[in-house]
Amino acid sequence: MLIHQLENCSDGHWSDPVMVQLRFGFPEKIDGPLGALNCLVQRWPKFGGEKYSRAKQLCMAALGGRVPCESARGAFVAAAEEAEVLASYTKHGKSISGNATA
Q: Which pTM does this prediction carry?
């Protein structure tokens, strides 16, 4: 089975960071699959769940070059929503949830 490397995500960043609130309730910017995987494995408040598992799988696959980095981002956002850690903040007077450029 051939696995084609789509892009190198090991040092890559997402086009739009994801804001989450983990420990102490302060918003934290996650800007790529490596940071997301770190959060999921070491600091996530609710281990398990369908979206959590999918996010871990896609982050690892993105780091291995098997899926686009942005696929991992979408899965991470879904997992953050599932765990209720997607941060809300204000940008240019508009309320934003999780996505830095939404």
A: 0.78
